[in-house]
């Protein structure tokens, strides 16, 4: 019998192979596509890669093989654009590339460290499949795979125009860069604090009431939202004008506020009604001063 650790490593290698195949196929399509606009070409290639990963997910019966796509693909897309646009090595471009790479590496490694094997799937996917089995095929395709790809690519559009413009460094671009780095650090600290809290409170139904979690119910989600606002601020620094791309970070914020967070908190409240006390005293997303100082000890911990 294969040891669990070996099985985990084997499935990680299989997922890596899946991504190599998906990226290779998407890259080939990008190169032969008879369209001059690199933004449109990359979008089509991105969707093709997504569909291939979705197909592999069906093959292994685990939709979570898509999960690293969210963070793994943006640097690949940026490299592709930089090659096509022949981006020069200048400070503004280097800082943007570093910010995305830093974010991608942390988030992808965090996913890899939490990966078990193909027998374990994100609880949200399993819930959707069990509640609406007749809609699972469509929900898996559009909701779990295609929609996140489209939302992230929408964020990436500002990066394309940034690379195309090759802007000189300025204060606003610098502020956006700092926002991105701060966002990654917030995510790292929040995840570390949650892991530490769970290890110290195994078997106890308590709510984390320390660190960043004392001021936000979802500081890790806040970090993700802040990351894409930082990218937009860098874009704004390059053009210093408002346009439709402002909708990009707004859509990312809406994704967490109206889908991810409600789904997470509904799950917690279903088994732990005491969580309502935590909701009333702690800010939902943006870290802020507490509305109430007292917090009951028997509230369930956040299950993110």
Q: Provide the succession of SSEs.
A: HHHHHHHHHH
Mean pLDDT across all amino acids: 91
The low-confidence runs, each spanning 5 or more residues with pLDDT under 50, are 293-303
Rg over CA atoms: 20 Å
Shape: globular
Number of helices: 10
Quaternary class: single chain
Largest sheet: none
Helicity, as a percent range: over 70%
What structural class do the secondary elements suggest?
mainly alpha
Count of structural domains = 2
Query: What fraction of residues sit in β-strands?
Result: under 5%
Distance between the termini: 32 Å
Count of β-strands? 0
Structure description:
The protein has 304 residues and is an all-alpha fold. It has two domains: 1-167, no CATH class; 170-304, no CATH class. The protein contains ten helices and no strands. It has helices at 4-32, 38-60, 69-85, 91-114, 123-131, 136-165, 171-200, 219-239, 247-271, 275-281. Helix 5 (123-131) crosses helix 6 and helix 6 packs parallel to helix 8. The longest helix has 30 residues, at 136-165. The chain is globular and about 55 Å long. Residues 293-303 have low confidence and may be disordered.
Briefly characterize the structure.
With 304 residues, this protein is mainly alpha-helical. It contains 10 helices and no strands.
Output the keywords.
mainly alpha, 10 helices, 0% strand, globular, disordered C terminus
């Amino acid at each position: 019998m294969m040891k669990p650790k070996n099985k985990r490593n084997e499935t990680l290698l299989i997922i890596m192979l899946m991504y190599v195949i998906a990226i290779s196929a998407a890259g080939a399509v990008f190169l032969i596509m008879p369209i001059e606009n690199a933004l449109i070409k990359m979008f089509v290639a991105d969707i093709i890669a997504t569909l291939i990963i979705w197909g592999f997910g069906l093959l292994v019966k685990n939709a979570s093989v898509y999960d690293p796509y969210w963070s793994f693909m943006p640097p690949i897309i940026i490299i592709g654009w930089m090659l096509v646009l022949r981006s020069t090595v200048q400070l503004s471009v280097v800082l943007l590339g570093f910010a995305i790479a830093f974010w991608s590496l942390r988030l992808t490694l965090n996913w890899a460290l939490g990966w078990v094997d193909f027998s374990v799937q994100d609880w949200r996917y399993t819930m959707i499949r069990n509640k609406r089995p007749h809609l699972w095929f469509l929900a898996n395709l559009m909701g779990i795979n295609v929609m996140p790809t489209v939302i992230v690519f929408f964020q990436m559009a500002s990066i394309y125009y940034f690379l195309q413009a090759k802007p000189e460094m300025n204060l606003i671009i610098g502020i956006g860069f700092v926002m991105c780095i701060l966002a990654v650090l917030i995510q790292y600290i929040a995840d570390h604090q949650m892991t530490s809290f769970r290890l110290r409170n195994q078997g106890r139904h308590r709510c984390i009431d320390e660190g960043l979690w004392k001021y936000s119910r979802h500081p890790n989600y806040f970090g993700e939202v802040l990351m894409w606002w930082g990218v937009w601020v860098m874009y704004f620094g390059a053009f210093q004008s408002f346009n439709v791309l402002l909708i990009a970070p707004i859509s990312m914020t809406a994704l967490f506020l109206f889908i991810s967070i409600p789904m997470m908190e509904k799950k917690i409240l279903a088994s732990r009604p005491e969580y309502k006390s935590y909701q009333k005293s702690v800010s939902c997303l943006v870290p802020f001063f507490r509305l109430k100082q007292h917090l009951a000890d028997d509230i369930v911990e956040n299950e993110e």
